[in-house]
Structure formats: structure tokens, C-alpha cells
Amino acid sequence: MISIKRTLFTGIFYTAIARYSAIVISLFVTAVLSRLLSPEDFGIVAIATVIINFFSIFTDIGISPAIIQNKNLTKKDISALFSFTIWSGIVISLIFFLLSWVISEWYASIILKPLCQLLAINLFFSSANIIPNALFYKNKQFKYIAWRSFIIQISGGVLAVGFALLGGGLYSLIISPIISSILLFLISFHKYPIKIHLTLGIDTLKKIFNYSVYQFLFNIINYFSRNLDKLLIGKYLPMSLLGYYEKSYRLMMLPLQNITYVITPVMHPVLSDFQNDIERLSTSYEKIVRLLAYIGFPLSILFLYSSKEITLIIFGDKWMPSVETLKILSLTIGIQMILSSSGAIYQAAGDTKSLFNCGLFSSITNVAGMLASIFIFGTLKSIAISICITFSLNFLQCYLVMYKVTFQERSFLIFIKQLISPISLSIIIAFFLHHISAYTEHLSLLYSLCIKCCFFLISIGLYLQLTNEYDLIKKLKGKKI
């Protein structure tokens, strides 16, 4: 029997290949488009994307994680669920298409109407791909997922850049997700050709209801928790500010999306095997938390002191207003990297009710903070500060609930212990980068960033070696640690 460590490592390895190849492609595409399009263009597409993400919640209703978690579903059950996603996808896509007039009028943007109508195509194929995609993860076919992702990223990136260079304007920002969703479905359906029936699969939905209902409710409230900022900024502040905010938020999310999201897709399929062994589940997760803390907290400091260089190198000088916002948002990187992995543990333990309760608290605090920052202060800086405060509160309550309920009264101090050393390392890095920044201020952006990254890596290496957290010297010599 393959060990959990080997399975987890294999999954992370192939997920990392897909993710990091996507980084290179995405950064190249973004760098080109950011120089060809205006902040207003990015703000408009951000609104359309946020709204379509809301509709996509109703196509899934928690089915995907339920398929991964439930080990007793038959081929007939899978076929019934697939039929449900097809028919519901058609209905929801049509509703989204018809609402494009309302959305366009609400945001006083004529271009939003055709954008939303075109993105309805993306919504349908995303719905149709829910079941085939879940089967890939359920069967732990991470290598196939990696190759599939790489092919789609290349195809979408080439089309987006080509379309922009031909004068496609902001439509070049939506061609990639539309084509990618179609390719994703075609490739996945070729691997898992599932029969479609004239049924909604109600009987099968009842089998997974107790699990999926809380996942679905969590998805709804988590949507508002994560996206209300963009919806409100787009409505009550200039669209250009949304463009600047979207860019700073996207940069802040880079470590989260390209490190944590390499690990979390693998966690649920692998750790769900221990849904009846809470002790093993909790100890396995604590190792992951420690790893994420060693990555996330130091990266928060690097982004804090390198916000200007990162923003202007990737997007160009016209995105300077995004720098201050990124500095503030960067303080949440470590917290968000760890927090984003918690959902997989609630799912693996079968405790989606606690996941929903945590999401509800998170949604309330995030919405309250967002409303106050927009309607009282009305600045991007105040919005970024509110995000820092609310995410810190959500982080604390999420893990208090996890250790008390999901891990059945396990000591919360065990969790705190995993964070002490990574936070100490971050304080040391902050001390060095604070003094280095004064000397690199007048250097070129690329040179300044390289110097800061070098000191960042050296500080981490020395700390890990001197604290015996990880013996790098022996590793480099090829000896067993």
C-alpha cells in the first residue's frame, strides 16, 4: 500500500509542475496585457468575473468535494450527478445571460453586457466539468491533471496575447477563460465519458446532501466574504480604483495561489482516507501548517519591502497607485496561506458543518469591515487595512473551532507552537530588509529586487541551519538527515 507521505508528495509534485508553469505563462500574459490595456479595462472585467463566480456556486452546490469524500458512489450515481450539472448549468447560464442587461445598467457600463453574455459560455462548460474534474482528484490522478492544466494554460495564454496585439481590447481578458473552460471539458470528458440522462438525479443528491449542503452554504458566504470588496468598489468608487485594487490584490494572492494551491488540492483526496482517525489527521495537518508558516510569514515581509519593485516590474509605471495597497495587503499573506488550507481539513474530516460556521463568522466580519472602510473612509488604503484586521480575526476563530470541534478538544497550544519559529524568522528578515531598503532606494527596480531576494534567501537558509529546523549542509552533501 502506498504511504500517505508518498501519495501526498506525488500529488504536490505534479500539482506544482502545473502551477509553476502556469505562473510563468500568467505573468507573461499579464505583463503584456497590463501594458496594452487601461486600469478601467481591468476593473470592468474584474466585475464581470466576480459576478460569474457567484453563479458558478449554484452549478456545484458542494457536489465536487462530496464526490471526493464519499467512497460508496456507484457509476449510476456519478452519471446522475453529471446529468444534474449539465441541466442546471444550462439554466444558470441562461439566467446569467439574461441578467447581463441588469448588470450593465447597475454599474453604468455598456460594455459589461456583451462581456457577461460571452462569459455565459464559460459558466456552462465550468458546470459541465464539475463531475469529470472531481473524478480526477478522487482517483488521485495528479499527473494527468498537471499535463491537462499545462496544455490549457499555454493555449489560453497564446490566444489572449494574440487577440490583444490584434486590437481585441478588454475582450482579450475573457477569451482565455472561455477557451480554457471548453478545452478543460473536452479533455476531461474524453478521459471520463459519462452518460447523460433526462433526470436531475434527486435520489443521488440525497445521498450526499448532509455533506454537500454545508459545503454549498459555505461556498455562498465565502463568495461574499472574498468578493464584496470588488463589487462595492466597482459600484461606489471610480472603476480605475478597482483596476488598481485588483492588481494589488492579485499580486498579494500570488504566493497563496502558487504555493498553497499546490498543496490544498491534494490534501482532501489524500487525507480523506483518515476521516475516521482524527489523531492521524491532525498530526499530519500540523506538519503542513508548519511548512506553510515557514513559507508564508517570511514572504509577507518580502512583499512588504518589495511592493514597489514587484508591481512596477510586472505591470509597469502606470500601476504605481497599486503599490501602497499591496504593502498593506502583503501583511496577510502568511495568515491566508495557512487559512486557505483549513477547508480541506474540514472536508477530509467530514465536518462541513464547522466549515460553514467558520465561513459564516468570516463573512460577517469581512462584510462589516468592508462596508465601514468604503462608506466611512472611501479609500483603497482603508479597504486594505480592514482586510488585514478581518482576516486576522477569521484566522483565530477558524483554528479555535477546528481544534475544539473537528479535532475533538485537541490542545490549541499545539497549533500555536507550529507558528512561533516561523514568526521569529520573519522578524529577523524584517530587520534586515528594513535597513537594506534604505540603500537600494535609488537603484534600478530589478537590481533592488534581486538584492532583497538574496538577503531573504540567505536569512532563511542560515536560520533553518542554525536552529536545526532543516540541515541544509547535509542535504547539499547528499547525506541522509
Gist of the model:
With 481 residues, this protein is an all-alpha fold.
Q: Quickly give the structural class.
A: mainly alpha
> How widely separated are the two ends?
25 Å
What's the tally of helices?
A: 20
What characteristic shape results from the CA principal axes? globular
Q: If you average the pLDDT, what whole number results?
A: 79
Tell me the number of structural domains. Answer: 2
Question: Main sheet, how many strands, which sense, barrel?
Answer: none
Beta-strand share of residues: under 5%
Q: Which regions contain 5 or more consecutive residues with pLDDT less than 50?
A: none
- Oligomeric state of the chains? single chain
Could you tell me the number of beta strands?
0
Estimated helix fraction: over 70%
What is the rounded Rg? 22 Å
Strand and helix order? HHHHHHHHHHHHHHHHHHHH
